[in-house]
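$ ./design --mode recover --in tokens.txt
reading tokens...
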């Protein structure tokens, strides 16, 4: 560095430029300064002292404190004051401020597309909603406080989860999985549980006889809703007895027993098209497409637009739930096809391959990378289906691994 300060050599490295700048700041503080370069042949003592310090093991006691420098003294660290705790908002805020993306290309593209609707205003993260104001992104504590105020506060009316989510977005607040959070909050509300409407269901009986049918109709139907004109049922033997017939003859009600029939093929196909699927949770063709129901018939244009905007604000939650259902459906199909497979128990000393997660894969390899890691040896069985592994060099892995992440390795 002496030749760079005196001007003999040029400064090409950026780090040396920082040292040169710091030295130039300190030189005017001295009345007289002389810089001499000591030749390497005359600097053996200092060089040996530095090498001996690095090679000697550092023995420290518990009372001695250690100071670890993460950065050099010449490095300038920029610190921004952002009112965010460490939660789901930090990844988006870090990208908006510094442009830092994950190493994985898929995660980076997902974050890039997700952050397009977010912005930072006065050190707080906001999301642009569809047809509404900028919604402030909340942490878990703030979400609980806002839900309590909107649901059961001074202006709260103990509304349902759909209305509660709409009120939160309209008031300018947002959080991922807000629909699920609102549903759980409404479900656990004490007043909503105490003042919930009564749901009349059929009684549970081990064996249903005519006398139980007569008592149920009299107690749960006649005494509550007056004498009915007609009663439709699908269980014939219990409603076609002599006692039940005498009970209806004494009143003014007429009974119609509708027996179960075998569905036709066309009805089965239509039921398959209109039944929500396990993997997606949606039906292929809803019933309202062919025959509009009352909820579609009474829907106005403005209300439909507001509902669609609310669904757009909840699109991230629906995507996450669809991904969870897709993974669960794959696991269910895997268990179904593997239930007849004869799987032998893993023995201590066997060599196994460990699957690579998305985080452990090298992003430079891409699709050409391996899906299984190097062979490991089973040392002990920690619990049922969990094992302790070690490398080929005898180094033990820090965590136990489940059998679902392992497969045999044959030499």
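writing sequence...
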């Amino acid at each position: 560095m002496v030749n760079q300060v005196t001007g003999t050599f040029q400064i090409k490295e950026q780090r040396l430029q920082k040292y040169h700048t710091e030295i130039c700041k300190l030189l005017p503080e001295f009345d007289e300064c002389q810089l001499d370069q000591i030749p390497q042949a005359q600097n053996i003592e200092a060089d040996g002292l530095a090498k001996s310090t690095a090679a000697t093991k550092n023995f420290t006691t518990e009372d001695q404190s250690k100071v670890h420098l993460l950065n050099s003294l010449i490095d300038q660290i920029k610190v921004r004051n952002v009112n965010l705790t460490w939660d789901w908002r930090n990844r988006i805020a870090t990208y908006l401020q510094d442009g830092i993306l994950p190493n994985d290309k898929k995660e980076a593209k997902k974050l890039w597309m997700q952050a397009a609707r977010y912005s930072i205003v006065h050190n707080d993260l906001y999301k642009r909603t569809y047809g509404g104001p900028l919604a402030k992104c909340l942490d878990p504590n703030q979400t609980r406080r806002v839900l309590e105020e909107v649901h059961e506060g001074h202006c709260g009316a103990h509304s349902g989860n759909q209305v509660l989510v709409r009120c939160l977005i309209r008031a300018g607040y947002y959080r991922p999985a807000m629909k699920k959070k609102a549903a759980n909050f409404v479900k656990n509300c004490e007043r909503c549980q105490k003042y919930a409407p009564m749901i009349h269901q059929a009684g549970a009986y081990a064996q249903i006889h005519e006398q139980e049918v007569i008592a149920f109709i009299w107690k749960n139907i006649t005494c509550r809703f007056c004498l009915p004109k007609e009663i439709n049922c699908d269980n014939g033997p219990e409603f076609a007895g002599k006692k039940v017939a005498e009970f209806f003859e004494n009143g003014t009600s007429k009974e119609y027993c509708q027996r179960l029939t075998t569905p036709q093929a066309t009805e089965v196909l239509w039921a398959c098209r209109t039944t929500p699927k396990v993997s997606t949770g949606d039906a292929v063709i809803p019933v309202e497409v062919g025959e509009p129901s009352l909820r579609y018939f009474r829907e106005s244009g403005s209300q439909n637009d507001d509902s669609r905007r609310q669904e757009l604000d909840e699109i991230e939650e629906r995507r996450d739930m669809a991904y969870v259902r897709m993974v669960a459906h794959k696991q269910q199909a895997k268990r179904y096809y593997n239930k007849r497979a004869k799987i032998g128990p893993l023995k201590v000393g066997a060599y196994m391959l460990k699957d690579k997660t998305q985080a452990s894969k090298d992003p430079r390899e891409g699709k050409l990378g391996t899906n299984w890691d190097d062979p490991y040896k089973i040392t002990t069985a920690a619990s049922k289906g969990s094992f302790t592994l070690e490398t080929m060099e005898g180094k033990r892995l820090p965590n136990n691994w489940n059998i679902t992440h392992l497969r045999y390795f044959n030499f």
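exit 0
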